[in-house]
Amino acid sequence: MSIMHYIGAAFVLILITAVGIYSGRNVKTAHDFNAGGRRAGAGIVMGSIIGTLVGGASTIGTAQLAFSYGFSAWWFTLGSGLGCLALATCFSRPIYESGISTMPQIFATEYGQNASTIATLLTSLGSFLSIVSQILSGVALMTSVSGVEPFVSTIAIVALMLAYVVFGGVWGAGYVGVAKTILLYVSVGICGLVAFNMEGGLAAFRAALPASRYFNLFARGFAVDLGAGLSLLVGVLTTQSYIQALISARTLKVSRAGVLTSALLIPFIGIAGIFVGMYMKLHYPDISSASALPLFTMRYLHPLFGGFVLATLLVGVVGTGSGVALGLSSMICGDIYKIYINKNATDERSLIMSRGVIVTILVCAGLVSGGNMGSMILSWSFLSMGLRGAVAFGPLCAAIFFKGRISGEFAIAAMVAGPLFVLLGKFFLPSSIDPLFPGVAANIIVLLLARRSVLY
After folding, report:
1. DSSP string computed for 104-136
2. Which of 28, 109, 421, 446 could form a disulfide with 439 if both were Cys (CB 3.0 to 4.6 A apart)?
3. Is the pLDDT of residue 240 over 70?
4. What is the per-residue pLDDT across 289-341, written as a single tens digit (0 to 9) for each?
């Protein structure tokens, strides 16, 4: 990186850090921190969702997978958009009008406190994996374009995540999410257009690459890619961060508008990353696939704007990791700390605890990311979403649409069976079958066996 790269990068990082700190002015209580005090507009809702969903997997990870499989890489952002669409059209009203602040609270009301606690613990595992994958993405980005050591990169990324969300909570995720959304769509969108035009358009790409592989949504296998899309769909519906954004709005109408806008915008950023990945496959077939987008930025953009783009990609990684950490903190504080540890915690104490849990989560994720987890970035992101969905999708649907039909014991059994079968499928099923299928199937089958059947 040249001095111009660093100047462009510094501008973005200073801007994002300042917005994150400024957002803290809106936080007076723990409710403000975790749910925005139900004062957020559609832009803040959209910023919170896109700021958390569109990160390293949607940009660096999508270009990485497109390098090898073309449009099969679209499933992360396409599935995210479908998940947001389902959240807005089918789930927004019952969740918003329930008055809850965390997803496990729905389970506590319907199935009892034990079910709520188990849901918190099991979905937290998937969320934690998502944070680790984002840190790994950020380390790959920083080390591929500079001489910074992985350990220093990890510290820098964790510090940025803390600045992003620990001051402002939902407001921080929302305000910075709006800024990040604008920066990301401008940056990655321009990269996609540059790659598209330099190659000579769609016809040139189709002529240079085998269409059966690079222009096929199911290039990795029908079951694998369909499972990837399904994992995003159920993952979005069962992740605290997105539910938290939904309930932060001042009205249901505003909430739906923010979620629907997210559903429309998210798929487009994936297309830009795909064309960059395919362009780099044609012209630099021997590079590491994870470096496709960062190296494209370094080679083909003006250094000042290139630094701007690289920092924006880093902010994308940071925003997703910190947004998921915020959701985790809300569940741990609301459904474990205030239930089992300090039932009479003051609002001030709860706010301190929320911020402290975020710091702990991010530091632990930074320590775990020091290991080499390998594989594609998107592979870990798909697994993370799938685990969350396998725990909570069936019980959430039953709690919302079939109230009083499922006992707490069966709900708990479904929450345990789902992720267990995902992990068993990950290790024992052939690679042509996504482990999400047996996980979600087990989750739903257990519920159908309940004494008070959903079919009654």
Report:
1. HHHHHHHH-HHHHHHHHHHHHHHHHHHHHHHHH
2. 421
3. yes
4. 878 898 999 899 999 998 888 888 887 787 778 777 877 887 788 778 778 78
- What does the block give as tokens for 439? 């996980």
In sequence order, the 6+-apart residues with CB closer than 8 A to the CB of 127 are 239, 240, 241, 324, 327, 328, 384, 388
Domains and CATH numbers, the chain: 3-372 (1.20.1730.10)
The answer to whether the beta carbons of residues 177 and 50 sit under 8 Å apart is yes
pTM for this entry: 0.80
Measure the CA–CA gap between 178 and 172, rounded to whole angstroms.
10
Instruction: Between 377 and 139, name the one with better pLDDT.
Output: 139
Of 396, 405, 375, the residue nearest 440 (C-alpha) = 396
Residue 361 predicted with pLDDT over 70: yes
Identify the DSSP state of 406. S
C-alpha–C-alpha distance, residues 455 and 412, integer Å: 19
With a CB cutoff of 8 Å and minimum separation 6, the contacts of 40 are 48, 170, 171, 174, 245, 248, 249, 250, 254, 258
Pair of tokens at residue 185:
């769509």
Residue 447, pLDDT > 80, answer: yes
The strand pairing partners of 249, in sequence order, are 40
